[in-house]
Amino acid sequence: MTDKELLNIAKQAAQNAYAPYSNFYVGAALLTDDDEVYTGCNIENASYGATNCAERTAIFKAVSEGKRNFKKIAVVSKAGVTAYPCGVCLQVMNEFMPEGIVILENEDKIITYTVRELLPHGFVL
Ligand code: THU
């Protein structure tokens, strides 16, 4: 699975975003350590704080199916804006993929970061 392929799967997932309040469509594609792919989209709510980001949708889908370790996550926004993960999603990545890679798109270029670069000091118990 190449980074480009994972980004393309994330783009498809963004089509399912439920974002009537922000109109900001986000898609994510998560690669597990056993090379399965789980997708996610953002799911908004009239009570805005109940919104779930695309990244957490993908991670929670995978965890709920018994997966625990992830290698990479691709994140895109339909608006073409580079979809840097929010702090809450980074903290969730810190739990399940602390050594993982985040794949993003900047204009037409693929950019990658480690989860560690984006969240150098995640909370641990
Ligand atoms: N959003 C995500 O899906 N992922 C992020 O990392 C940041 C924000 C969504 C949440 C909300 O539906 C919309 O983008 C605008 O904040």
Polypeptide structure, described:
Helix content is 30%, strand content 26%. With 125 residues, it is of the alpha+beta class. It has one domain (3-118): Cytidine Deaminase, domain 2 (3-Layer(aba) Sandwich). The chain has a 5-stranded mixed sheet with strand order 2-1-3-4-5. The chain is globular, with a radius of gyration of 13 Å. The model has no long low-confidence stretch (mean pLDDT 97). Bound molecules: tetrahydrodeoxyuridine. Residues 19, 22, 24, 26, 42, 44, 51, 53-55, 85-86, 89 line the site of tetrahydrodeoxyuridine.
List keywords for this structure.
binds tetrahydrodeoxyuridine; globular; 4 helices; 125 residues; Cytidine Deaminase, domain 2; five-stranded mixed sheet; single chain; alpha+beta
Proportion of β residues? 25-35%
CATH superfamily: Cytidine Deaminase, domain 2
Architecture per CATH nomenclature, i.e. the level-2 architecture: 3-Layer(aba) Sandwich
Structural class: alpha+beta
Shape: globular
Which blocks of ≥5 consecutive residues have pLDDT under 50? Answer: none
Distance between the termini: 33 Å
CATH classification, class level: Alpha Beta
Helix content: 25-40%
> Quick check: average pLDDT?
97
As laid out across the biggest beta sheet, the strand order is 2-1-3-4-5
Hetero compounds: tetrahydrodeoxyuridine
The sequence of SSEs as H and E is HEEHEHEEH
Largest sheet, strands/sense/barrel: 5 strands, mixed
The CATH topology? Cytidine Deaminase, domain 2
